[in-house]
Specification:
The protein is mostly helical. It has 13 helices and 4 strands. It has one domain: TIM Barrel (Alpha-Beta Barrel). The structure holds zinc ion. Zinc ion binds next to loops. Zinc ion (ZN) binds next to loops. This is NodB homology domain-containing protein. Keywords: Hydrolase, Metal-binding.
């Protein structure tokens, strides 16, 4: 999967992509980290995304900060090799109170991390669950339908979200797009990047994107909701992003149906599992 993503980035000239992963799974499988060497050898980079990947909304600040530091200890070799020390909030959630956000931001500043926002996304994690089911069932028709839908959804969402930001700000800043490292991303990224390029999208480094104050001093909106910067800019200007979340998500759970394997059921079980390691209170409605 990461090889297919690396190849797609190379084919479309996408430079210096930062990988953000929670590091807790590497406690049991340290060899998973080897993939980061291949990633960096291809010219890409690694940032900090917390150890346990638990939203700041659901934790106290001290625990969250310990989680940032724990991940840095594991990833230091790769983080030190990157041109910039970037931190990406777990779930891109920056905290449900201004005080939490400020305390974490102060820690990032002390430790030399710059928060790397997500300004665009296309709900590819939801496609991942359906795609995995379709592959496991050998349902080739469903696999193809899901991949085609993901490509269309990615292009539509980039257009809609960039348009919302442009309307809110009166100009079009550089954007930072999230793509999860999943099998469905590996299968579709080449087509997604090709379609974006055909619409005139130019790919720049994260450092170039972060030269824009819209990304460094982002939308000053404290919310516990799962929102990227484009959605926050839209909300601050009293508008919404068209078709976000996309209506197609409603069709995914019935595609290649397997009992107990819907996206929400998988996410719920993952949250329960995290809750056995550390006391926290996930709030499912944060994702709506
Ligand atoms: Zn994440």
């Amino acid at each position: 999967m990461s090889k297919r993503m690396i190849d797609a980035f190379a084919a479309h000239g996408v430079p210096g992509v930062y990988a953000f992963n929670g590091t807790m799974p590497t406690e049991a499988r340290p060899a998973d980290l080897d993939i980061l060497d291949d990633w960096c050898a291809a010219g890409h980079h690694v940032g900090n995304h917390t150890h346990q990947h638990i939203s700041l909304n659901w934790l106290d600040t001290d625990t969250y900060i310990k989680d940032i530091d724990a991940s840095e200890r594991i990833l230091r070799r790769w983080i030190d090799a990157a041109p910039t020390r970037y931190f990406r909030y777990a779930f891109a959630m920056e905290g449900d109170t201004v005080d939490k956000t400020r305390e974490v931001q102060a820690h990032l500043t002390r430790t030399g991390f710059l928060s790397s926002p997500v300004t665009l996304w296309f709900w590819d994690a939801q496609f991942m669950a359906a795609h995995n089911r379709a592959v496991s069932l050998g349902d080739h028709e469903a696999v193809r339908w899901l991949e085609d839908k993901l490509v269309d959804t990615a292009v539509d969402q980039v257009r809609n979200q960039a348009a919302a930001t442009a309307a809110a700000l009166g100009r079009s800043p550089a954007h930072i797009l999230l793509v999860h490292g999943t099998a469905v991303a590996g299968a579709t990224l080449d087509r997604i990047l090709g379609r974006l390029a055909s619409h005139g999208v130019l790919f720049v480094t994260s450092e170039e994107a972060m030269a824009d104050p819209a990304n460094v001093i982002g939308p000053q909106l404290t919310t516990r909701r799962f929102r990227n910067f484009s959605q926050k800019w839209a909300e601050l200007s009293g508008t919404t992003v068209a078709d976000a979340p996309p209506a197609v998500l409603d069709d995914l759970d019935n595609t290649a149906y397997i009992e107990g394997m819907s996206f929400n059921e998988l996410l719920g079980r993952a949250m329960t599992d995290w809750g056995t390691r550390i006391p926290f209170t996930p709030v499912a409605s944060d994702f709506h």
